[in-house]
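Support request, please re-run this one:
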Amino acid sequence: MAGDKPKRPPSSYFLYCADHRDELKQEHSDWNANKIRKELSKMWKEATDEEKEKYKKIYEKKKAEYDKLVKDQDESEGSEEGSEDESSIKKRTRSGGSKKESTKKKQKKTGKRALTAYQLFQQERRPQFKKDHPETKPKDVMSALAKEWKNLTEDEKQEFKDKAEELKKKKKDESEEEEEEDEE
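Re-run finished. Output below.
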């Protein structure tokens, strides 16, 4: 029943654009949609704070109605916990939480991912390359190192692959230890 969910209200900017789009189309019938959109954006930037506040209040009113509709709908569907709390409603909104937040929390616990063989190669090789070519731009340094990596034989790459595999195992062991500590 995902299709039955209410649609999120348009932002204050989109409400402003909806009010002024027809007016612009009439004044400039020869303009294409892209040019109208650019002009609306310019008009919004130049709008007074009072005018923007008017649309912000309309948005907030529509947002409150939307949140109420979502909450009522979830209660009528009989969600698993009985009724949904405010934090779970926020997950469906732009300003609320998201799946990314839980991923970030996991990454904070375990730290960053282990480096790849290519990253280890760059880490080792970059300082010397910069020393040999001090005038080179960072983008060009990366390109040159990428070419060097590509030209390495499999045996030369294997050294970095082995280091990367060791780091990966070490990182996995650390994360398992942290999970065990969290469970206790």
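The radius of gyration is 27 Å. DSSP finds eight helices and no strands in the chain.
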